Amino acid sequence: MTTNPSGNPSNFFPGVVRTVADLPAISRGEAKTFELVRDGEYAEALTASEIHLDGSADMGTHANGDLLLFVREGSGTLTVSGEEFELSPDCAALIRHEEKWALSSTTPFKIFSVHAPGAGPHARKIAKPSTGFQRVVKQGITNKGKATGNREFEVLFDESRGSTGATMFIGFIPTSGAPAHYHLYDEICHIVRGGGSFVVGESQVPIGPGSTFVVAPRMLHSVMNDREEDLWILGTFRPAGTPAAAYYPDGRPAPGYDEV
């Protein structure tokens, strides 16, 4: 894996890809947390961690914005403010500001989490009022949309399900992958299934399940799938919106994205 040559623990460096194998575990009771993306050089940055748990853990009270979870492996129970919710692979869940939460695994959990901070001028400016709320969403229940190339995506969380600061989605990339493009939003990407490479400029870094990387605004990049199966990529970005909001290097909107 490519590492950040500055040695900074932030992952906001073009072409950097990380997995939990690159990081020390931080123990929180029976839970082990791996900080894949820290705030580093960015103010009000999206950050990401992976939680490993075989047992039960009180995760405390979440502060400052939304915490979005995605279950990569395992099953069990999420408890939020005394209410229990069943979790299984490919479920996503939302923890809101000042909510107490805990996890209990039936089979060992591997949960990817993204924190979208809600305090600060940028967060207040880009926040969208929620139009609904859903604590847990199962991947596969929402209709798919079209993105760059012949990719498809499925939105898991946005303001319609209670996330006021970010959008979480699953993108499905077929063999060959997406052409070089850019977005105007900040994004953290996590590979759920399949593999290929993350391409930024002359850098082409192998990716597979558990790989995590950052896509900064206006950074030209592509994700290539060199396998016969689809590559599943979990993306979380802010400001919230549609995953189809992409542009090609000459500034043309990608097919499927109608600018407002």
Description of the molecule:
Strands 1, 2, 3, 4, 5, 6, 7, 8 and 9 form a nine-stranded antiparallel sheet that branches. Strands 10-11-12-18-13-16 form a six-stranded antiparallel sheet, with no helix packed on it. It has two domains: 20-126, Sandwich (Jelly Rolls); 139-238, Jelly Rolls, CATH 2.60.120.10. The protein contains one helix and 18 strands. The chain is mainly beta and 260 residues long.
Summarize the SSE layout with pairings:
Elements: E1 26-28, E2 31-37, E3 47-53, E4 56-61, E5 66-80, E6 83-87, E7 91-95, E8 100-116, H1 121-126, E9 136-138, E10 145-146, E11 152-157, E12 167-173, E13 186-193, E14 196-200, E15 203-207, E16 212-215, E17 222-224, E18 231-238
Antiparallel strand pairs: 1-2, 2-3, 3-8, 4-8, 5-6, 5-7, 5-8, 7-9, 10-11, 11-12, 12-18, 13-16, 13-18, 14-15, 14-17
Summarize, please.
This protein has 260 residues and is mostly beta strands. It is built from one helix and 18 strands.
